[in-house]
C-alpha cells in the first residue's frame, strides 16, 4: 500500500481505495461506541429506577416500623413526594371558551377557524343557547342605554358584539354597559360597498367562535328593541326559519343592479333584493362565512352603486337555502317617504302610540301560523330620541325591573 502511495497518478484512486478498506473499520468502531453508550444509558436508567425503589422501600419499612413502635418520629416520615408541578386538568371547558374578542387573527384565519362544525350532533354538556346581538356601527352605540335596560337581568342568554368601522373614534363605553369591551377587530366600512359584507361576515365569524351562540341578529346603532328580552329570546330561539328578507324586483334598484358577468354562478332570475338587517341560525351563519363562490362574484361584480349588502345575502340564501328562510326581516324600517334613506325618528316621533303601533303588526306568519308579532326591532332612531325612549320603552315593553 505504501508503494502504491508514491505513485502520483494513482494518488487519488489510492486514497479512495484506502477509504474503502477502512470504511468497515470505521463503522465497527462507531457501532461499538454506540453500543457501549446505549449500554451505559440502560444501565444508568435501570440503576436510578432501582435506587428510587430502594429508597421508597426504605421509607415504607420505616413507616411500617414506626407505626408498629408508634414512635414519635412522625416528622421524619414523609410520603414520597413528586417534584412535578400539580397536574393541570385539561377538560372540554378550556376548548369551549371563546378566544379574546380582540384577537390577532387575520380575516382569512378567523373565517377558517369559525367555520369548524362538530360532527357529533349532541352536545356533551348542558348548553344554554344564546342570541348573538351583532352591532354594525361607525362610532359608539348611541342608544346603548336603551339596550342596557333591555338586557338587564338576562345575563347568560345573550352575547353582544360590536363592529365599529371608524377607527379614529375611540370613545369607550361605560364599564357597567353591556357594550363595554365587546368590540371585535374591525375594519373600515363604506356604505354600499362590498366591504360592508366583509364586516357582516367578520361579525358572524367572531360570534361563531362561541359555541353557545345559536341565533345571530345584525343591528345598527340606530336600532331599538320593540319587545322585552324574554319575548325576543323565545321568538328567535324557537323559530323554524331564518329571517333574511328576499324578493325579486324589476327596475333599476332591483334587477337593474345585476351584472351579466355574474352568470353562470348567479343568473338574472336568481337575483334577489332585501334588507341588510338579518337574523339567522348557527347553521346558516356557518354557511355564510364559509361561502367563497358567491362572495367572490359579488366582490368582483357588485361593488359601489350595486349595494352588495342589499343583494348578496338575499341572493345567496334564496339560491342555496330557500326552504329555511322566512323571506322577511325582523327589523322595522319605513321607506314610505321614498328616496335613498328611510325615515329617521327623532325626539317628537317617540310616543307610546307610535311604539305600540310598531309592536302591534299582525300581518306576518311565524312558524307557519299567524302571529301578533311581525318585527322585534325598529330603526332608524337618532340620539335625540334617547331620552323619550328611556322614559317610555321600559314600561311599555315590560323590561325587567332594575
Ligand atoms: C370618525 O370619528 C371621528 C372622531 O369621532 C370623526 O371626527 C369623524 O367624522 C368620523 N368619521 C366618519 C366617517 O364617521
Ligand atoms: C383617542 O385617544 C387618544 C389617546 O387616548 C386621544 O389623544 C385622542 O384624542 C382620542 N381620539 C378621539 C377621536 O377621541
Ligand atoms: C315580556 O313581555 C311580555 C309581553 O310582551 C310579557 O307577557 C312578559 O311577562 C314579559 N316578560 C318579563 C320577564 O317581564
Ligand atoms: C321563502 O321563499 C322561498 C323561495 O321563494 C320558499 O321556498 C320558501 O318556502 C319561502 N319561505 C316561507 C316561509 O314561505
Ligand atoms: C292592534 O291592532 C289591531 C288591528 O290591527 C287592533 O284591533 C288592536 O286594538 C290593536 N291592539 C293594540 C294593543 O293597540
Automatic annotation (TrEMBL):
Q: Which residues cross the membrane?
A: 27-49
Task: List the PANTHER family hit by this protein, alphabetically.
Answer: CORE-2/I-BRANCHING BETA-1,6-N-ACETYLGLUCOSAMINYLTRANSFERASE FAMILY PROTEIN-RELATED, GLYCOSYL TRANSFERASE, FAMILY 14
The protein's matches in Pfam families, at most eight in alphabetical order, are given as: Branch
Highest taxon listed in the record's lineage: Eukaryota
A GO term, aspect molecular function: glycosyltransferase activity
Q: What main location does UniProt list?
A: membrane
**What name does this protein carry?**
Glycosyl transferase, family 14
Q: How does it sit in the membrane?
A: Single-pass type II membrane protein
GO CC list: membrane
Where is this gene product found? Membrane
Keyword tags: Glycoprotein, Glycosyltransferase, Membrane, Transferase, Transmembrane, Transmembrane helix
